Amino acid sequence: MLLYTLLKFILKVALRIFFRRFQVDGLEKLRRTNGPLILAVNHPNTFMDPLIIATLVRQRVAFIANGSIFNRFTRPIFSYFHVIPVYRKKDTAHSTLSPAELNKRTFQRCYDYLETKGTIMIFPEGTSEIERRLREIKTGTARIALGAESEHEFNLGVQILPIGLNYSDPTHFRSEVFINIGTPIQVQDFKESYRPDSFEAVATLTDLIQQRLTETVIITEDAEEDSLVLQVEKLYKNQLFDELLLNRKIKKHEFGLIKQLINAVRYFEKHHPEQLKSLQIKMTNYLDSLKKLRLSDRVFTQTQRLYDHFGSTLLSLLLGFPFYVIGLITNYIPYILPSKIARLISLDISYRAPIMMTVGILLFPIFYGFEAFIVHSLFQQHWITVAFVACLPLLGYFVLWYWDRLTRLSHLWQALRLFRQKPSLMESLTSERAKIFKALEDAKRLYLTNSKSTD
Predict the structure, then answer these.
(1) How many CB atoms are closer than 10 A to CB 402?
(2) Burial of 419 (0-12, 13-18, 19+ CB in 10 A)
């Protein structure tokens, strides 16, 4: 238990470093809901998903995992961390037992764990895909919950808590994650409809889990719709934040706004497809032009004060340059190596983030310790060594901030250069942007008018 607690603490710290913004809505639901409890979580980011949820739960958590990852080397480790295997037909080729027989044992282990008021984490989609979708929920979660209650005549008190994981970019360091905890489901409510020889209660409970999980995640229908919504977000989201008096730093506000954007896109897909297609073409052309010219849309909101922004950004970079150099020297190797190692270990992009974070947990202490040893050897003063070690992570954060400002400066410089050398091109882009925003405003008014009329 001591090892589990220590690893949990390390992961908490690592996750807050890996993600630029890590926010949870509804944490009180999780904290006040004790076992027997099933956490039903969507699964967009392989091994990162269980790590995030486990650090939020005070009690120890058991995990349902694919049986294919179990072998003679991993089994003792997974056993310590209470990982319970579930098997598919292809995972049991070398077993004398069938998948049905093995999974019967799995279900019984879950019943036993819930009987002791334990907490089990399940990813009911069954597979992990990096996309803003919720795949069809498998029936296993409902069968485990109802089976455990049935063994205790529906007096056990099992609850299912849906949790939605929403990543801004699941594969990249310093991206964002929003954990949205939904409304718990009381399994006892299915006592009257449950029959061991009937599938009706299982199907009804599975549908309810699907519905509650849907409320906690951003869902787009397909890649085309997702691309369109992302374009609208990129161009129009900040203006909507200001108009609706929302705080752009609060992920719950952003979550609700994106849900509304998706509803609006679907309204236009159904009722005004030509208008939507025209807007999509304009946004695609405009964003493609910005990409080719290495420009940010942000510069067109600052056209009246481009020189002021350029000057203040340049001044901050000049003043911070010595600290940037020191931070780069002391943090570059442990920063860059995890991504290199992740690419060598796996070509699957969905595994990159958890591998990067795990490697980083190991490398940063090693390199910081090595650098501390060098400094102590040079100065032979404990206070200097302690101060140096304390500054290392701060310098690492400063390097990230500095790089963001440097990128902003390059966009500002490019904009100033083009405004001076190719004013007609920039006027054309400005005009194109104005037309897009007028189309977005017109679409917003039309959508809101029709939304009110249907209420």
Answers:
(1) 20
(2) middle
Alpha helix (H) residue ranges in 60-129: 75-80, 99-115
Distance separating alpha carbons of residues 350 and 346, to the nearest angstrom: 9
pLDDT band at 128 (very low <50, low <70, confident <90, very high): confident
Q: Alpha carbon of 73 to those of 70, 79, 218: distances in Å? A: 8, 11, 38
Angle ∠(352,354,355) on CA atoms, nearest 5: 65
Do strands 119-122 and 176-181 pair parallel, antiparallel, or not at all (unpaired)? unpaired
At residue 415, φ and ψ (nearest 5 deg) are: -65, -45
* Mean of pLDDT values over 413-440: 96
Other C-beta atoms closer than 10 Å to the C-beta of 13 total 11
Residue 455: pLDDT above 60? no
Q: Are the beta carbons of 123 and 159 closer than 8 angstroms?
A: no
- For the stretch 390-406, pLDDT in tens is 999 999 999 999 999 99
* Residue 437 buriedness (CB in 10 A; 0-12 / 13-18 / 19+): middle
Residue 393 in tokens: 């992570």
Nearest-angstrom CA–CA distance, 259 and 218: 7
Distance CA 253, CA 263 (A): 16
Sign (positive or negative) of CA dihedral 360, 365, 366, 367: positive
Domain 2-214: which CATH number of 3.65.10.10, 2.60.120.280, 3.40.1130.10, 3.40.50.970: 3.40.1130.10
The domain ranges of the chain are 2-214, 223-295, 303-421
pLDDT at 90 over 70: no
282/106: higher pLDDT? 282
Q: What is the biggest distance separating any 2 CA atoms in the chain, rounded to whole angstroms? A: 79
Q: Which of 271-277's residues contact partners 24+ apart within 8 Å by CB, and which partners?
A: 271/450, 272/446, 275/439, 275/443, 276/228, 276/443
Instruction: Name the residue among 342, 294, 298, 313 with its Cα closest to residue 405.
Output: 313
Q: Are 213 and 125 within 8 A, CB to CB? A: no
SS3 call for 175: coil
- pTM for this one? 0.91
CB count within 10 Å of CB 151 equals 14
> What CA–CA distances, in Å, run from 347 to 155, 334, 342?
48, 21, 8
Considering only 210-219, 338-347, 445-454, which range has the smallest mean pLDDT?
445-454
Average pLDDT of the chain? Answer: 92
